[in-house]
Write a structure and sequence with these properties.
There is one protein chain. It is built from five helices and no strands. The model has no long low-confidence stretch (mean pLDDT 78). By secondary structure, the chain is mainly α. The radius of gyration is 31 Å and the shape is elongated. It has a domain of 37 residues.
Length: 100
């Protein structure tokens, strides 16, 4: 036992780097809550071919739109504004039925 004490005391200070403090792991409950909150606004997923996705990116950049859903909404509004009167009336009728 004295030999071990002698070895430890004979080492120069600073020869062993101290290990960083071990941080407590995050609680899983808080991580799961954050993930669930982030997913609540995603109601649907749309799969697009690559060429249509690239065109959507172009529309977003031209109109300074950040999100895909805003760009799709912009395109729908643009279509309805420029659609024939019958199509516009039918769109408005159907959107009222869906939103009830």
């Amino acid at each position: 036992m004295n030999n071990k004490m002698g070895l430890i005391s004979s080492r120069p200070s600073g020869s062993i780097k101290p290990e960083p403090d071990i941080k407590k792991p995050k609680r899983l409950g808080s991580e799961l809550t954050k993930k669930k909150i982030g997913k609540d606004n995603q109601k649907h997923t749309i799969k697009l071919p690559d060429d249509i996705f690239q065109k959507l990116k172009i529309v977003k950049s031209i109109n300074d739109i950040k999100f895909d859903y805003d760009a799709i909404g912009f395109l729908i509004d643009s279509y309805v504004e420029n659609a024939p009167k019958e199509d516009e009336e039918f769109y408005n009728f159907m959107s009222k039925k869906i939103n009830k």
